[in-house]
UniProtKB/TrEMBL annotation:
The keyword Electron transport does not apply. It comes from Mycolicibacterium vanbaalenii. It holds the Pfam family Methyltransf_11. CDD domains: AdoMet_MTases (cd02440). PANTHER family: METHYLTRANSFERASE LIKE 7A (PTHR45036:SF1), METHYLTRANSFERASE LIKE 7B (PTHR45036). It comes from the Bacteria. The gene is ubiG_2. It is an enzyme of class 2 (transferase). One of its GO terms (biological process) is methylation. This is Ubiquinone biosynthesis O-methyltransferase. Keywords: Methyltransferase, Transferase, Ubiquinone.
Length: 210
């Protein structure tokens, strides 16, 4: 596995998309970060869209972003964030070195890592006992949407969208790593009938048992 990601097409696309996010998604980002405190690891920060939403009870955010074009934008967002943010330009797999965090934040990223089971296991190990994983991830659907997701994943979607996979059972992966999900719900950024592979999101808190 490489230490960095080099994907100019996706970087351009994500820069444009993250600058025009719907209010429904911004609301979910705010909710995902509400009440956090202490030292936080953010995985795959993109352009740093989350940074403005961290509460001031967070003492430090270490944000990992391996695509260097996106990391430059994340550093810019870090400079105006309400809390101290350091951007590290490695993949999370390479970055994690046994450091300890009070919380880990994943938003729209567990779809993009090569091996989610391995990454979530690593995230579990860098949390203090009692620490929390906050997640906001689009998830595998059922029926016709599942068929659409499997087709998208097998063809064009990961190539166009920075290795994004739409048919992932991310909450099962989180529980499988040893986390206890203490609060979670589903939300839709588009009405359920819209035939898009990534309309349904899971947002939740998962605790590493003390
Ligand atoms: C869809 S974007 C989401 C960005 C951000 N989390 C957000 O909520 O806007 C996925 C991000 O994950 C990053 N990424 C992909 N593979 C990664 C890895 N192995 N480690 C860390 N970040 C990764 C990509 O570079 C990209 O910035």
């Amino acid at each position: 596995m490489s230490d960095t990601v080099d994907n100019p097409f996706f970087a351009r696309l994500w820069t444009a998309m993250s600058a025009r996010e719907p209010e429904s998604l911004r609301r979910l980002r705010r909710e995902n970060l509400a009440g956090l405190s202490g030292r936080v690891l953010e995985v795959g920060a993109g352009t740093g869209t989350n940074f403005e939403f961290y509460p001031d009870t967070v003492t430090e955010v270490v944000a990992v972003e391996p695509e260097h074009r996106l990391a430059v934008l994340a550093e810019r967002a870090a400079s105006s964030a309400p809390i101290p943010v350091t951007v590290e330009t490695e993949t999370v797999e390479k970055f994690l070195d046994g450091g300890q965090f009070d919380a880990v934040v994943c938003s729209l990223v567990l779809c993009s890592v090569d091996n989610p089971e391995q990454v979530v296991g690593q995230l579990f190990s860098v949390l203090h006992p009692g620490g929390e994983l906050r997640y906001l991830e689009h998830i595998a659907g059922a029926g016709a949407r599942a068929r659409l997701q499997r087709f998208a994943d097998a063809t064009f979607w990961p190539r166009l969208l920075g290795n994004c996979h739409t048919h992932r059972h991310t909450e099962a992966t989180i529980v499988g790593a040893g986390f206890q999900v203490t609060g979670a719900r589903r939300d839709w950024t588009f009405p359920a009938w819209v035939p898009l592979p990534v309309a349904e999101f899971a947002i939740g808190v998962a605790i590493k048992p003390a």
